[in-house]
Sequence to fold (345 residues):
Amino acid sequence: MTQQDMVPPELQRNVLITPVDWIYNLGRAGSVWPTMFGLACCAFEMIVTLTSRYDLARFGMEFMRASPRQTELMIISGTVTKKMAPQVVRLYDQMPEPKYVLAMGACAISGGPFKDGYNVVPGIDKYLPVDVYVPGCPPRPESLLDGVFKLHQKMRNETIRTSPWYRKGVERELPVPEYGPQGLVLPKGEKSA
Amino acid sequence: MSTRDLFDTLTAKLPQFELEYLEGKDPAILVRAEHLLGLALYLRDEGGYDYCASITGVDYEDRFEVVYHLCSMKEQGPPVVLKVHAPRENPEVPSVVAIWSGADWQEREVWDLMGVRFSGHPNLKRILMWEGFEGHPLRKDYPGPVDEYTFS
Fold:
């Protein structure tokens, strides 16, 4: 069956037929709202990316929402200290599906120069599933923009048939780490994967 | 006034304090822990050093050292550096919070990370690490953190 047969003749010049994935993902990728929080010096590069010179608003991201419940992208902009890690995971749990994580800078990716320290999480991917890694110390705004484009690419290639967040009964809440006597511990009953 | 001049003045006026002059790029005055409060009070009231800019702990593996940087808000001149030694086992140094109240959080930081106890401190508890944390992570013999991860 062709488009000619499905659409009545009077509508044929006005209707576009397309996969629902394509139009749905286009809408999602065109308005990714990030959470508004910065963790360290990378936050300043993130703020500069929002200003008129780089203008993240061109891609529908002008809103840094102050509430995680209105966002779908979490930019981990900087060093995640062990004291901050439980709050970051708690914010992630409060974000609605679908949600994405962008690790920005060496510290968020691996702990950076503080990797062996007593106070820094060696990479936020120890506690959150990271979608895009943007290396740099700190990454320039162009790098962050490129990371955002990579995320857009990822979103456009998803299909609602297989996306875990689109199914019923899928539990995606992550355990919030707690302060222990020698470092961060997972709550009782949660085992590390 | 250079540290050398100050040291000469102090030894002339306060011979009972058994001060020691430490030569180096940044000369310092070594004082015994039991004489720290008397010297600090003299430096604040007579020497004009009304501002304790920083308190630092150093782990030399056989001893701890607490370093004080004192400045004057009234007169120009370089800061004077005081050093106090504390034993490796159960290190304890008198608190100078009663003399410079700005020393409060700095002494708490040295206690938190280095484990030097400041006797007489009004509120000596951890300031950077969380309550319930064990050990002092900037000591040379700190074994290192043990973490549990969701994804390893």
About this structure: Chain B has one domain: 3-119. Chain B touches chain A at residues 128-135, 137, 142, 144-152 (CB under 8 Å). The radius of gyration of chain B is 17 Å. The first strand of chain B starts at residue 20 and ends at 22.
